[in-house]
Design a protein that fits this description.
two-stranded antiparallel ribbon; two-stranded parallel ribbon; 44% helix; globular
Length: 79
């Protein structure tokens, strides 16, 4: 377990999939709205989840685009 910067992890995933997406004719969009978001988690497991999500998105998106977005969303009254 460690603190992980979410935007750095998403950039790693993006870099790993952007060429594959381009070859499939799908635009992979990186949209980082917040850069200082940290989570406390197992880096390898979170990265594997992100890889699985991107892999499935590419598998089931025959054309168009896929967005990887980092955005902090807070519920009213919670931080």
């Amino acid at each position: 377990m460690e603190y992980i910067r979410v935007d750095e992890l998403i950039r790693e995933v993006y870099t790993s999939f952007v060429l594959q997406a381009n070859e499939a004719g799908v635009e992979l969009v990186l949209d980082i709205l917040n850069t200082d978001i940290y989570i406390y988690a197992d880096r390898n497991r979170i990265k594997q989840v992100m890889f699985n999500l991107c892999s499935n998105a590419l598998k089931f998106t025959p054309k168009g685009s896929i967005a990887l977005r980092v955005q902090l969303v807070m519920e009213s009254g919670r931080e």
